[in-house]
Design brief:
Length: 159
């Protein structure tokens, strides 16, 4: 867990994460750790997240929000789903996992839609079995991909 925290702090200090995103990421880590030490969490966790893949925000005007994040952070559009009004932003040449922020035009805007953790060699079928042993129901859909809900109902996507 310490490498993920260090990665988030580095991203914050370099301006790739806002204070709000840093706090959301650290909070999500605290929830997934369940208050256990890093060592005991690693022993009982079904898999290990190696970083935050992206954070998804619901926005009222996709074009305006894309322009804002491009102007303020220098993000570029990494990929788009024009039919569903989604733009994925990051930095060019960042390779796999280049998406840092996903924007989706949908109500209620001003909401953090979900957080996505990077899991190396993710096997959704094996992950589903492991999550079930922990009393967690994994789901798959177009909106979130492979995900489950945290104790407060926030979607946690695994990528």
């Amino acid at each position: 867990m310490e490498p993920m925290i260090a990665d988030m702090v580095d991203n914050y200090e370099c301006g790739r994460l806002s204070r709000r995103e840093l706090i959301a990421g650290l909070s999500a880590l605290a929830v997934t750790a369940g208050g256990a030490s890093a060592a005991s969490a690693a022993e009982t966790a079904p898999f290990e997240a190696t970083g935050i893949h992206h954070i998804s925000l619901l926005v009222s005007d996709l074009d305006r929000s894309v322009a804002f994040y491009q102007d303020v952070f220098g993000f570029r559009i990494v990929s788009e789903d024009k039919e569903n009004r989604i733009a994925r932003l990051g930095y060019e040449g960042s390779g796999p996992g280049a998406t840092i922020l996903s924007l989706r035009e949908q109500q209620p805007h001003g909401t953090c839609d979900h957080i996505a953790f990077r899991v190396d060699d993710l096997d959704p079928e094996a992950a589903t079995r492991k999550l079930k042993k922990h009393g967690i129901e994994a789901q798959q859909n177009l909106e979130y991909g492979f995900f489950f809900r945290d104790p407060d109902g926030y979607p946690v996507q695994l990528v």
